[in-house]
Specification:
- The chain is 45% helix and 15% strand.
- By secondary structure, the chain is an alpha/beta fold.
- It has one domain: 3-Layer(aba) Sandwich (Rossmann fold), CATH 3.40.50.
- The chain has a 7-stranded parallel sheet with strand order 3-2-1-4-5-6-7, sandwiched between helices.
- Helix 2 packs parallel to helix 3 and helix 6 crosses helix 7.
- It is globular and about 50 Å long.
- 43% of the residues are buried.
- The model has no long low-confidence stretch (mean pLDDT 97).
- Bound molecules: nicotinamide-adenine-dinucleotide.
- Nicotinamide-adenine-dinucleotide (NAD) binds next to helix 1 and helix 6.
């Protein structure tokens, strides 16, 4: 029960990794507020439906969570969108959406959460970046640069706010078996189960990650077990580097 008495906010809570993070935090005693576009079906102590591309929603959310739960100790910036294809196929709308969800929303949520955590004597922020933000793969320039940006923000904030006992770290998954991955196959007309089987064979551990494989590392970074970690970018890749 590493999170007894802790209050947490998880973004993208209705998604594959988000649901697993919420489950793990609650299983270990946290009181959890969830946010996504639709959260009615999620088990949580507080639900906040909203669009992370709305600056006001992001600016106000940590304060609303703090008021609803009586504190905010842990922020998991997990929501994300992926735009596939080369730069010559990308629209301004693709660029704006990815920057808004993957970079600007975590920026605003961190900016609003940090003073609340500092007043309470500390906290932990865990961002979901990507292996691809550390080492670019092919044909996803928008996604990759946004994940590089959140990785860089993690390192900056990890350094800047350690003196306030606020630890900021990121998990960097390679492929994870979630709707984000599976819809990518479906968009390309592929059978998602067969495509995942083929991908499994490319991973030294023999399978791509399940959401729980990532959520357990997020929980580690949010917990006292990671009490001396600030600004770390933890690759969770089953031994598979970005090729
Ligand atoms: N699945 C992978 O292979 C993989 C690999 C590396 C990193 N990641 C990262 O993990 C995180 C979680 O991804 P996932 O695989 O669980 O994807 P997912 O699509 O299952 O979940 C993402 C969630 O974010 C929410 N979201 C997106 N845009 C939003 C908006 N404007 N407002 C509110 N909520 C919004 C979605 O509704 C969804 O529930 C993302 O940041 C993603 O980039 C995923």
């Amino acid at each position: 029960m590493r999170f007894s008495g802790k209050k947490a906010l998880v973004t993208g809570a209705a998604g594959g990794i988000g649901q697993a993070i919420v489950h793990r935090l609650r299983a270990e005693g946290a009181t959890v507020a969830v946010t996504d576009r639709a959260t009615a079906d999620l088990e949580a102590e507080a639900r906040f439906d909203g669009d992370l591309t709305d600056p006001a929603f992001c600016n106000e959310l940590p304060g609303r969570v703090h008021a609803a739960l009586g504190g905010l100790d842990i922020l998991c910036n997990n929501a994300g969108v992926i735009t596939r294809g080369r730069i010559t196929e990308a629209s301004d709308a693709d660029l704006a959406l990815s920057l808004a969800v993957n970079v600007e929303a975590p920026f605003r949520l961190c900016r609003a959460a940090i003073p609340l955590m500092a007043d309470a004597g500390g906290g932990a922020i865990v961002n979901t970046a990507s292996c691809w933000g550390l080492q670019p793969g092919p044909d996803h320039p928008i996604y990759i640069m946004t994940k590089a940006a959140i990785a860089s923000l993690t390192q900056c904030l990890g350094r800047d706010h350690a003196h306030q006992n606020i630890r900021v770290n990121a998990v960097c998954p390679n492929e994870v078996n979630t709707p984000m991955l599976r819809t990518g196959f479906e968009i390309r007309g592929l059978d998602a189960d067969k495509a995942v089987d083929a991908l499994n064979a490319s991973v030294p551990l023999g399978r791509i990650a399940e959401p729980e494989d990532i959520a357990d590392v997020v929980a580690f970074l949010a917990s006292e077990d990671a009490r001396y970690m600030c600004g770390a970018l933890l690759e969770v890749n089953g031994g598979k580097p970005v090729g």
